[in-house]
């Protein structure tokens, strides 16, 4: 069996099915025209010379030439300055475009989410909060109600009370949710099949050297931006944070075409995409530093220092742009920004670690359940009806979510409610405490008395806790079947919501325990009566970080993101303890995070940097060709005619060919790309007189003297890479795997004493690892 041509592997008789494996990458078989509209053409692996280090070598040569010319004239000097500045200009444009799109998505999603519950009479384009801003008829107890905003029951029946009004609001909630979901899945299927899902697994794979044509194209950007708003507004258990990384990378890829040095160099473009991933997290959470660390820790394969600086600059520009738009009207970059003032005590480290254990268990359980459900979707008829699946899940979500106020609200709004620290100004049901004198507050009067001190729970708080417990079970179950559907779907917000609910429940429990047992040995000395000892909102924040860390296995970047959300340095230790605990617990059940699990599920050629190679084998055991395989397709440095070279190229689909001294010696000279070879021959036929099919193709510096009646030779020494990456046949595979990971290689030639023996590719390594683990490799076409 031969490796497919996408690797540039050089076997003369690869089967047709293998050659087409990656040329049909992620085609929309049910709608062939969709792929053309989305710009989704065949996917391919990068050429060997487009790997990070060779690509950087080309760029250094180009930069050296520009620097030398800059000393000769003013025009060349200006060209040198513009070339040096172009990278920063590109980062500026990526930040501005991504920040503007993120602000528009936030505003539109907030508006459509509120539209499910009612309409603003003074202007349908106002959401609920903006509609009541200018009203003089709101009260402190009912600040979210004003005559300008009416529910659908008030508009249709004239009343907001009674069973009929509840039924009308319930029905309209479902109708709008189904309409938004239908529009989202229809647009994705019709125009951009790549716009579904989170996008982070594919971005990680692209940054490792894999190219998916159209995945970062303009159609994908347009459709993902629109459908992300619709999917979030439908009330499905998903978030927009992960897809915003995909949106930012689409912006970067499109803007790269404005600059020649990025348009023609895949290695440099991948550096821009690494910076764009940081921009996506920056606008998603309002965390520029966390975004840079996220790109470094989670996404990027190759992250040089220059990329770090430019990522920081682009994330800064994006955050500034989003702050200027002010989509939430609170002068913050996110809806759930909070500030805690009460310090935490060492005793609380125990509950924080418990939240970490819960987050790790939930993360491991979610990954296994979600991957199992996705396998069912791929292997049964369920995968043939994505529209029906989305509508059924939306209807189920809407019917179960509406009766519970905590599942009815959006994910970001729920997290904001759970993070909130009760004070005198809060009318939330979660702040339904009793007064210190003993009388129970109603929901609207919650928090009367000492707004900061711990108080006994009232009837309103107990009711809220029951609702939160039901919401926790609902969120844990519905998120499993939602993530992976054919709509844009992020996982950050649902995971944080699960953790925030669990944390708030534990925080309230600790608060009541401290209130009624302040004389016990645990609380004596630091929690006196009337003091603000426990902050339930802090527990919600720690729980959110723990669950998100358990699902994604993020550590450093996650702590920094949560720190930037709260603005408090003193809570870093609880966040670090919970995050590391959740990672340790989740790793005990499997080292893969959700994104790595989906990469493996989809069969992407991706070598996980965190995974260790456990097999004691040599490159000779993994390389191709094997004994039963045909010989390598090679070019000789002299002796082949143009006609023979063209016949070899036309009979194969490989992306490049090794150049050897002769067919007998097979001593390696270099490597030449198929693309460069075809272009050079075509140009020679047009511009060089006498080049015909019988002309000798010479890859040496000094060609032998031709016969008197022979046509002039074609010298192609300039297109040969004289230093291709090579390893010997006795190199241990663990070292070879490290080379592939750290250099981002797609393939490497194998030699013995300078003689070419074969080639080893990333997919060969993946297949070898899968076979040794008694797993069948799933390297099939992408079916997102």
TrEMBL record:
<feature type="domain" description="CBS">
    <location>
        <begin position="623"/>
        <end position="687"/>
    </location>
</feature>
<dbReference type="GO" id="GO:0005769">
    <property type="term" value="C:early endosome"/>
</dbReference>
<feature type="transmembrane region" description="Helical">
    <location>
        <begin position="88"/>
        <end position="109"/>
    </location>
</feature>
<keyword id="KW-0868">Chloride</keyword>
<feature type="compositionally biased region" description="Basic and acidic residues">
    <location>
        <begin position="56"/>
        <end position="65"/>
    </location>
</feature>
<feature type="region of interest" description="Disordered">
    <location>
        <begin position="1"/>
        <end position="65"/>
    </location>
</feature>
<feature type="transmembrane region" description="Helical">
    <location>
        <begin position="352"/>
        <end position="371"/>
    </location>
</feature>
<keyword id="KW-0129">CBS domain</keyword>
<feature type="transmembrane region" description="Helical">
    <location>
        <begin position="219"/>
        <end position="238"/>
    </location>
</feature>
<feature type="compositionally biased region" description="Polar residues">
    <location>
        <begin position="14"/>
        <end position="31"/>
    </location>
</feature>
<dbReference type="GO" id="GO:0005794">
    <property type="term" value="C:Golgi apparatus"/>
</dbReference>
<dbReference type="GO" id="GO:0005886">
    <property type="term" value="C:plasma membrane"/>
</dbReference>
<feature type="transmembrane region" description="Helical">
    <location>
        <begin position="538"/>
        <end position="563"/>
    </location>
</feature>
<dbReference type="InterPro" id="IPR014743">
    <property type="entry name" value="Cl-channel_core"/>
</dbReference>
<keyword id="KW-0472">Membrane</keyword>
<feature type="transmembrane region" description="Helical">
    <location>
        <begin position="491"/>
        <end position="510"/>
    </location>
</feature>
<feature type="transmembrane region" description="Helical">
    <location>
        <begin position="464"/>
        <end position="484"/>
    </location>
</feature>
<feature type="domain" description="CBS">
    <location>
        <begin position="719"/>
        <end position="778"/>
    </location>
</feature>
<dbReference type="InterPro" id="IPR000644">
    <property type="entry name" value="CBS_dom"/>
</dbReference>
<dbReference type="Pfam" id="PF00654">
    <property type="entry name" value="Voltage_CLC"/>
</dbReference>
<keyword id="KW-0813">Transport</keyword>
<dbReference type="Pfam" id="PF00571">
    <property type="entry name" value="CBS"/>
</dbReference>
<keyword id="KW-0406">Ion transport</keyword>
<feature type="transmembrane region" description="Helical">
    <location>
        <begin position="244"/>
        <end position="260"/>
    </location>
</feature>
<dbReference type="GO" id="GO:0008021">
    <property type="term" value="C:synaptic vesicle"/>
</dbReference>
<protein>
    <recommendedName>
        <fullName>Chloride channel protein</fullName>
    </recommendedName>
</protein>
<keyword id="KW-0967">Endosome</keyword>
<feature type="transmembrane region" description="Helical">
    <location>
        <begin position="164"/>
        <end position="185"/>
    </location>
</feature>
<feature type="transmembrane region" description="Helical">
    <location>
        <begin position="383"/>
        <end position="402"/>
    </location>
</feature>
<keyword id="KW-1133">Transmembrane helix</keyword>
<keyword id="KW-0812">Transmembrane</keyword>
<comment type="similarity">
    <text>Belongs to the chloride channel (TC 2.A.49) family.</text>
</comment>
<dbReference type="InterPro" id="IPR046342">
    <property type="entry name" value="CBS_dom_sf"/>
</dbReference>
<dbReference type="InterPro" id="IPR001807">
    <property type="entry name" value="ClC"/>
</dbReference>
<feature type="transmembrane region" description="Helical">
    <location>
        <begin position="272"/>
        <end position="295"/>
    </location>
</feature>
<dbReference type="GO" id="GO:0010008">
    <property type="term" value="C:endosome membrane"/>
</dbReference>
<dbReference type="GO" id="GO:0005247">
    <property type="term" value="F:voltage-gated chloride channel activity"/>
</dbReference>
């Amino acid at each position: 069996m031969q490796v497919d041509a996408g690797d540039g592997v050089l076997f003369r008789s690869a089967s047709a099915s293998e050659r087409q494996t990656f040329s049909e990458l992620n085609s929309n078989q049910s709608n062939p025209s969709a792929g053309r509209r989305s710009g989704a053409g065949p996917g391919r692996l990068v050429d060997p010379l487009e790997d990070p280090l060779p690509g950087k070598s080309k760029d250094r040569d180009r930069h050296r030439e520009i620097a030398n010319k800059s000393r000769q004239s003013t025009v060349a000097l200006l060209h040198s300055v513009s070339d040096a500045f172009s990278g920063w200009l590109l980062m500026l444009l990526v930040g501005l475009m991504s920040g503007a799109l993120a602000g528009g998505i936030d505003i539109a999603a907030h508006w459509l989410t509120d539209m499910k519950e009612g309409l603003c009479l003074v202007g349908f384009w106002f959401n609920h909060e903006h509609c009541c801003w200018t009203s003089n008829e709101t009260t402190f107890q009912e600040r979210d109600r004003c005559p300008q905003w009416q529910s659908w029951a008030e508009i249709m029946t004239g009343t907001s009370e009674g069973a009929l009004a509840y039924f009308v609001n319930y029905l309209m909630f479902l109708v709008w949710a189904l309409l938004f979901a239908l529009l989202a899945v229809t647009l994705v299927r019709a125009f951009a099949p790549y716009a579904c899902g989170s996008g982070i697994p594919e971005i990680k794979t692209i940054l490792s050297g894999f190219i998916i044509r159209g995945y970062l194209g303009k159609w994908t950007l347009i459709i993902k931006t629109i459908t992300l708003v619709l999917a979030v507004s439908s009330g499905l258990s998903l978030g927009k944070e992960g897809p915003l990384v995909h949106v930012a990378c689409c912006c970067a890829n499109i803007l790269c075409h404005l600059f020649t040095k990025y348009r023609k160099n895949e290695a440099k473009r991948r550096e821009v995409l690494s910076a764009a991933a940081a921009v996506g997290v920056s606008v998603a959470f309002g965390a520029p530093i966390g975004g840079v660390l996220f790109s470094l820790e989670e996404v990027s394969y190759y992250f040089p220092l220059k990329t770090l600086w430019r990522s920081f600059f682009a994330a800064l520009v994006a955050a500034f742009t989003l702050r200027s738009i002010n989509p939430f009207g609170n002068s913050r970059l996110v809806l759930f920004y909070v500030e805690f003032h009460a310090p935490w005590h060492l005793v609380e480290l125990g509950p924080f670690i418990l939240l970490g254990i819960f987050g790790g268990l939930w993360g491991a359980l979610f990954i296994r359940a979600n991957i199992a459900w996705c396998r069912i979707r791929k292997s049964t008829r369920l995968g043939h009806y994505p529209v029906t699946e989305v509508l059924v899940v939306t209807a189920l979500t809407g019917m179960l979510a509406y009766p519970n106020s905590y599942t009815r609200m959006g994910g970001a709004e729920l997290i904001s409610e759970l993070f909130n620290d009760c004070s005198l100004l809060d009318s939330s049901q979660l702040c339904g405490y009793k007064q210190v004198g003993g009388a129970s507050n109603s929901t609207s009067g919650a928090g009367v008395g000492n707004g900061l001190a711990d108080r006994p729970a009232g009837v309103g708080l107990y009711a809220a806790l029951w609702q939160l417990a039901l919401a926790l079970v609902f969120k844990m179950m519905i998120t499993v079947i939602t993530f992976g559907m054919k709509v844009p779907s992020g996982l950050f917000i649902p995971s944080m919501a699960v953790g925030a609910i669990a944390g708030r429940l534990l925080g309230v429990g600790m608060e009541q325990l401290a209130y009624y047992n302040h004389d016990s040995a645990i609380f004596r000395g630091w929690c006196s009566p009337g003091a603000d000892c426990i902050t339930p909102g802090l527990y919600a924040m720690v729980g959110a970080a723990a669950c998100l860390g358990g699902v994604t296995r993020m550590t450093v970047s996650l702590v920094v993101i949560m720190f930037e959300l709260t603005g408090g340095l003193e809570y870093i230790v609880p966040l670090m303890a919970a995050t590391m605990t959740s990672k340790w617990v989740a790793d005990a059940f499997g080292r893969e995070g959700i994104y790595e699990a989906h990469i493996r599920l989809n069969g992407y050629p991706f070598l996980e940097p965190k995974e260790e190679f456990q097999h004691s084998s040599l490159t000779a055991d993994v390389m191709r060709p094997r004994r039963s395989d045909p010989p390598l397709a090679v070019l000789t440095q002299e002796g082949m005619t143009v006609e023979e070279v063209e016949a070899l190229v036309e009979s194969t689909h490989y992306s490049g060919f090794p150049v050897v001294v002769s067919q007998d010696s097979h001593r390696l000279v270099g490597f030449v790309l198929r693309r460069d070879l075809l272009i050079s021959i075509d140009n020679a036929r047009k511009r060089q007189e006498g080049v015909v099919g019988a002309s000798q193709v010479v890859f040496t510096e000094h060609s032998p003297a031709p016969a008197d009646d022979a046509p002039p030779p074609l010298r192609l020494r300039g297109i040969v890479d004289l230093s291709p990456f090579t390893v010997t046949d006795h190199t241990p595979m663990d070292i070879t795997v490290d080379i592939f990971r750290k250099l981002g290689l797609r393939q490497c030639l194998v030699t013995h004493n300078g003689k070419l023996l074969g080639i080893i590719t990333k997919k060969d390594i993946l297949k070898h690892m899968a076979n040794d683990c008694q797993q069948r490799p799933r390297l099939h076409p992408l079916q997102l």
